[in-house]
Structure formats: C-alpha cells, structure tokens
Amino acid sequence: MISTYRELIVWKKSMHIVSLTYDITSRFPKDEKFGLTSQIRRAVISIPSNIAEGSMRGSRGDYRRFLQISRGSVGEVRTQLELALNLKFIDSTNFHKLDQLLEEVLKILNTLISKLR
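RE: above sequence
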C-alpha cells in the first residue's frame, strides 16, 4: 500500500523529467527566457504537481481528474519540446531522451486513470 505520492513511480519519474528539462532549457537562447523556456518549465512542473495534488484531495474522482490534467501537461510538454527541436534549441538526443521518459509517464498515468474509474 502506498502511503504518499512520493512513493509513486510516476511521481518520481516526472520529478526526474523536471530536473532534466530545467537543465536542457537552461541552454536555450537567452531571448527565450520568457517565451518557450518559461512555457516548457511551467508545463513540466505541472505533471508531478498535479499527481501530488490529486493524491492529497481524498477522493478517487478528484485524483483521477488531477491525473488527467497531468496527462494533458505531458502532451503540452511534448509539443513544446518538438517545437524546440524544430527551432534547433534542443538536439535530437536530448529530445528523444525526454520524449521517451514522457511516454513512460504517460503510460503509467493512463493505467492509473483507468484503475480509478
């Protein structure tokens, strides 16, 4: 039995993605600080944040809803990273590494969401 969101693999993986994303976006052009860099960072932070918030809400329905929000943020981050790749702000190695991790998180979120129905 899991007693806290900090024990969830999906939360741990998404926290790792946040750290990697911050490292990678720190190398984006400085004039993107308030543009794509900020947007990606806000979106990626919302993944583990919503997992944590939903788990603390106390109802299955709320938890499921917050996991769905996290799932939406995964799509947002993937889109923004693809844009960064197209703009050559990120290399293909880092893009694929993050994209693969995001796919893993997405699969776990989908499983959790379906189990909470």
